[in-house]
Amino acid sequence: MKKYRIEHKILTLAHCAVMEVKEKPASFEIEGLEFSHCDFNFRDGWKDSDAWIATCEIEAENFIDAINVFRARLNKLIPRISLICQSYIEFTREPFIVHDLSRDIAFFEYSQDVKSGGLMFMEKERDGLVELLKHEEIPEPFYHYWNDAVNASGYSAKLLLMFSAMEAMARKRNKSVFKKSINLYTKILGEDLATEIFADENGLRNRLVHGEYFNGDDSGKNYLDTVHKKVIAYFNKEVFSKPYIQEDVVSPQRHPFGTKQGGRCIVRRKDGARSFPLKDLLDDFDEHGFGSPERYEHVFDNTLAQSY
């Protein structure tokens, strides 16, 4: 077994203000993890930082097992903190460092926010809008649900809003508010996916609405992109007189917030020290770029991943 030190960034609007330990202001320990505000001092307070750092030392066979154990603990704690702090808090797409304490190298997963690229609304899209305004088959609630889905940022929130948009179409076609049109879902999604999502008891939609959340069978499946593309294809084929909406858009439902870029690497400190403070790594990589940090160097050795 090896001992790993892990530090993970958490993006949040909550300011950590637990001051119980004089030597470690704006920090607390729970469930074996230490949470501390990313950038706090008594002169400036919390400054402009909207982040925490979670830290823990874990014994594991390898760094993959170590980070999995660590993130499982975070996955238990963060939703509970979210309820209590009543503020945005998210960690799954944030940077982290995994350091084997016996070595002078560390695994670093880096990410930074970037501005989202825009998409063109041209004459073809304008013509599609004109046609939609004349189209009475699609009910008004569909557009509002779909707009909310595009503007939302959470995966489950987006899916539930997209499912509600499709249900709005189903209600319109069946007249009865209680009867679901599996035929419409099948036409849009295909039989297998429609059953997987809208089956009465075991379908994803029903499970999410009734508190079961995602399970192991849902892992590795990008329902968001799949459902989005199938709904767009349905509009182009069945609603419009001709295809008005581009179907091969990269990263549909683009959002002005939460777009990331980055990479994974093995790093070594240029000064030879064996500590890897996540905040220092982020400051260096943010200032000098992923490929040319000033205080750290990339270690290119394929055998390291097998032995780390």
Topology:
Elements: E1 2-12, E2 27-30, E3 33-37, E4 51-60, H1 63-85, E5 89-90, E6 96-100, E7 105-113, H2 123-134, H3 140-151, H4 155-174, H5 182-189, H6 191-198, H7 204-209, H8 223-239, E8 260-269, H9 278-288, E9 296-298, H10 302-307
Antiparallel strand pairs: 1-4, 1-5, 1-6, 2-3, 3-4, 6-7, 7-8, 8-9
Please tell me about this protein's structure.
Helix 5 crosses helix 6 (191-198). 40% of the residues lie in helices and 19% in strands. It is α+β, with helices and mostly antiparallel strands.
Report the span from N to C terminus.
11 Å
Strand content: 15-25%
Largest sheet: 9 strands, antiparallel
Shape: elongated
Short description:
The chain has 308 residues and is α+β, with helices and mostly antiparallel strands. Helices cover 40% and strands 19% of the residues. Strands 1, 2, 3, 4, 5, 6, 7, 8 and 9 form a nine-stranded antiparallel β-sheet that branches.
